[in-house]
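Customer ticket, subject: "Can you confirm the structure for Peptide ABC transporter permease?"

Message body: Hello, I'm evaluating your service for our small team and ran a test protein. I'd like someone to confirm that this is what the system normally returns, since I don't have a reference to compare against.
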Amino acid sequence: MSALKNKRTLWILCSILLFFLLLSCLYEPLLSNILTLRVEKTLINGEIKYPPFTPLEVPPFGTDIIGFTIFAKIIQGFKYTFFIGLLLSIAQILSSLFLNILILYKVGTTFLLPVFSYFDKLFTLIPKPFLLLLLIGPYSDALLFNTDNVQPEANWMFVMIQLFILFLIGLPNLVKLYHAELAFLFKQDFFLASQTLGSSKFRTVKYSFKPQLTELTLNLFFKILIQNLSLFIYLAYFQLYLGGSLVTQLDASTTYTATISNEWSGLIGQNINRLASTPWTVLTPLAFYGGLIFLLNGIKRSLTGGLQNQSI
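Agent reply: Thanks for trying us out. I re-ran your input and got the following:
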């Protein structure tokens, strides 16, 4: 009964996720021609008003300060939020697995493991948001200064730098966690028995440890995916948007830095300083962001619950 419930829950949650992904992927070819993308002015109670508009004035979620509808931005940006986090997390998981295979041998034990253990301890001493700001911030200033506002090339290079730094920061802890699990499994009786029968460490990891490593990988994958999504918000708070940024001159003394991709963390970060005056521009994407994390946690619980039932 529990296994059937897990399957039903997993199917429902994955269907919701795929539906929103499909909706987001259809934005450019189809939905952008149907949805209202921008409201420059509108007539309210016989009076012409200009943005920003509240959700009551322009349903369902209102507009930002230059008139772009939050609803259209959320639909467009979901695919970038999800796929950037997904690809980054997969790259970290696969790299940590490969590095732990190398650690099985003498060269990896004497060189790789001490290096990753050192950086794992170092990264625990410095909070990751501040570490990201220290490492990524100077690149942002340099690229914007040296390219003389040639945005596409600068933004593409900046995205690659962001993802590379995020990849490196998350890797040491993953390597350490996998190594700790393997070290625990190597102490178990079934490993000692298989080693007595002539099985190598690599073969044991590939076949005998497969159920344990599969469950661990699923847990770590969702953990690192949610962690990466959280780090995206920290970056956006400092206007280091994934996908690049575009500066709009509102008047002689005011500029508005917006995310180009409309990735959800960027939507939060670009409006965070206007939380008091236009709260819907921050709270709406933040609610969707929280919903995505809740959805991913539900999928993780259903998958790991299904694996446990199979093992029983």
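A couple of notes from the result: The CA atoms of residues 53 and 296 lie 32 Å apart. The radius of gyration is 23 Å. Feel free to reply with more questions.
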